[in-house]
Amino acid sequence: MDNEKNSLEAHLQSGRFLAGVFKGKWKLLGIEWPIVFIEIKARDERKLTLRFECTGYPEIPTTATLWDIAKQQQLAAEHWPRGGRVSQVFNHGWMQGAALYLPCDRQAIIGHSNWVSELPWLIWKPQLGLIQYLEAVYEILQSYELESKAA
Amino acid sequence: MKIKVFVQSEALDDINVLEIEDSFNHKALQDACKAILPVAVNKEEFHLTLEDDDDDNSLENLKQIPEGAGLQLHRLKNITVQVRYAGRDVNRTFKPSTTIARIKKWAAKELGVAPSDAAELMLQISGTNDRPDTDIHLGTLVKTPAKSICFDLVPSPRVNG
Fold first, then answer.
1. Which of A25, A52, A63, B82 sits CB 3.0–4.6 Å from A36 for a disulfide?
2. Whole-prediction pTM value?
């Protein structure tokens, strides 16, 4: 367990993660091993909290859901981002929102061996770990298909 | 006061974080950055430049190094870039410290792609499956003796079934 936690902390101290913090893309909210909370910013300035479960890190992919920090529970479905390809990834109707529908997610990859050839750059890479997941989510949240919060 | 800067290079695998004094002059900054290069390279050949800045002298003219500054150490002054999209291509040279985000923005504008449409596109290195993150510098991808790179502007993924 110590090795797993140390690997995670090394990624959270890496230049790639900290550069994202300085650019306002994301920030670490806290670690309650094996859980990590990271806030990520959408194109409309909305800030969403990702709750990562990191058992087996980094060899085993992490899995994440949206989280309501104040209520200490999964973010209610009506607050999930939606619109076009955003809704495909933030799909609360799939597994009751227990995981994001991304090839680099531990739960989503199960049964989707086709993604290895179709979306190879999104397959989990232990050397990038959680940063790869964050980059993928950040890219999706910059989509113009994201419906604004007020809509 | 200690500040963090982010150093990329053709000789480094990833973005490196470096803690330096914000009062460092250009020479001290160069020395600190070059100190993290592998011992096998000739450090004298590397130029230090500021992220997304076309002025070679920007760092020399800075009174104070900004916290979080992005820096690039590279042997080349310029790199030739080609971006292909929908049967067309655009070309120009960029500094090695140019980010993927800036190259994409330039290419989309040159190709007449609206910002809303460009948000659904990504740069992929031609002939590979690699889609570099937007913060990555051109110089991190192009390693001497290569002097050029070609990207395809491709649709962002739609994850289904």
1. A52
2. 0.95
